[in-house]
Amino acid sequence: MTLIKHELRQGRLSLTIWTAAVGALLVICIFLFPEMKGQMEGVNDVFASMGSFTEAFGMDRLNFGTLIGFYAVECGNVLGLGGAFFASLCAAGMLSKEEKDRTAEFLLTHPVSRRRIVTGKLVAVFVQIVVMNVIVYVISVGSIAMVGEEIPWKELNLFHLAYFLLQSELAGICFGISAFMRKGSAGAGLGIAAMMYFLNLVANITESAEFLKYITPFGYCEGADIVADGCLDGGLVVVGLVFGAIGIAVAYQQYCRKDITV
Amino acid sequence: MEAIKTENLTKHYGKARGIEQISLTVEEGEFFGFIGPNGAGKSTTIRTLLGLISPTGGQAAVLGFDIVKEKEKILAGTGYLPSEAMFHPGMRVREVLKLSADLRKKDCRKAAVSLCERLQLDTSRKVDELSFGNRKKVAIVCALQHDPRLLVLDEPTSGLDPLMQKAFFEILRERHEKGTTVFLSSHILSEIQHNCSRAAIIREGRILVCDSVEALSQSNARRVTVHGSVELEGLPGVRDRKESEGVISFLYSGDMKALLRMLAAGDVSDLSVSEPDLEEIFMHYYEK
């Protein structure tokens, strides 16, 4: 518990900034919707005729004139990228920062097993992700209510669940990578999140690259699929969670036997 | 009971040397010195004993616990002062001290207040703003506040001013008198000579010698200073020879009769033969 509290205290500034940034962008997007709704017939035609670009963002299957269609594309990208960057950064730095900042010698010469240290840090990562998602969810619901739109509870809950799972998966993978790294964890975290995002765009554009949806967690966050199916793709979610679990298992395996040579 | 016991303890970093077959015994209650220059393997030995790195070979026990299987028990009874203390950014000194105590599940407030007073450490300051010496003081309090059975100190006085060094060694001596074992790693030989009862000298990852500081200082080698001229060529056992303005000084560990014959054949106006200090002993072992 001591270590979890310590990590949460260490990460509070980053959590505050990322949550405020993602929350503010969501508020701006939602508050733009009423104004844009009236112009959507023309806009829909424009978006539908942009070829691969349209498909990449799933705009060929979503109606921008509805709140959920607009939310899936605009807010989905904000929450998807913002959440993914935060979760990846947070997890990628969690283990490696002790060696990078040369604090490992202080922490690891206290009578706390490496296993407990990994567990404490992992819990701290997930607590931060949960806190961010809860706050962002409340901001979204509040903003939709404030602009006078009916809240599409089912789709909204599914979107936010999908993005929470995406962040959890990326956090698990990056946590595993963090156990091997001493420096450059921020670059690795951001790089993985960005790569996953672009893999999904590629998978949306080309049918032959659709298998990429099994690699990138953005595959099960596709707004058009969630709206059409009314549920998440269970197969993709399970594959994603397995990737995340492997990352966490690797983190335990590596960090518990790692030589600390700061 | 042995506070530290190692048998052929070895650590390699890939193909690079770390430490090689270190065998040491430090009895409980001892004030033990560990001498060697930078890169000799002092910190590697300490980090292996504290479980920060895993040994490649051999075995070791600290406070009777195995260094691989019972790391947490060792760390619970040990206070460690690293050569370069770093703390988590943004924390105040008092938060670092509390974190350290909480990780040990101990209430160390009373001891922390007393140590901070003696070391003149302001607990309200942020650790990021502290000088190297003040960070060292924070690390000293962290190492001592839980009243450990064993203190492992790696270059403890670097960064401390002479007054603080004095205060620090006073605290160490008090703890030692109460039964705490002190393992002092340093390249400052006077620290070892003034405080330790036994010491080991490490060179290129291997222990060269381990004995009482008194015995180390009274080794066969003698510092010989000759005023005048004398022919020493071909005399075995002459080391660290220095010549200036008619004065020849050297460490001698050979046959004394052979030296006297050489001196008698020379033109000697004055002569002194003295026990070398620990620094000279150290050089003696390092030049072998």
Low-confidence region ranges of chain A: none
Task: Going across the biggest sheet of chain B, name each strand in turn.
Answer: 6-7-8-3-9-10
Which H/E pattern describes the elements of chain B?
EEEHEEHEHHHEHEHEEHEEEHEH
Structurally, the number of domains of chain A stands at 1
Shape verdict of chain B: elongated
* Assembly state of the chains shown: heterodimer
**Helix/strand class of chain B:** alpha/beta
Brief write-up:
The complex is a heterodimer of chains A (262) and B (288). Chain A is mostly helical. Helix content of chain A is 75%, strand content 0%.
SSE topology sketch:
The complex is a heterodimer of chains A (262) and B (288).
Chain A: H1 2-37, H2 40-48, H3 52-56, H4 67-100, H5 104-107, H6 114-146, H7 153-178, H8 185-205, H9 223-229, H10 234-255
Helix pairs in contact in A: 1-4, 1-6, 4-6, 4-7, 4-8, 6-7, 6-10, 7-8, 7-10
Chain B: E1 2-13, E2 16-27, E3 31-35, H1 42-49, E4 57-62, E5 65-66, H2 71-76, E6 78-81, H3 93-103, H4 109-119, H5 132-144, E7 150-154, H6 162-177, E8 181-186, H7 189-195, E9 198-203, E10 206-212, H8 213-217, E11 222-229, E12 238-244, E13 247-252, H9 256-265, E14 267-274, H10 278-286
Parallel strand pairs in B: 3-8, 3-9, 6-7, 7-8
Antiparallel strand pairs in B: 1-2, 1-4, 4-5, 9-10, 11-13, 11-14, 12-13
Helix pairs in contact in B: 4-5
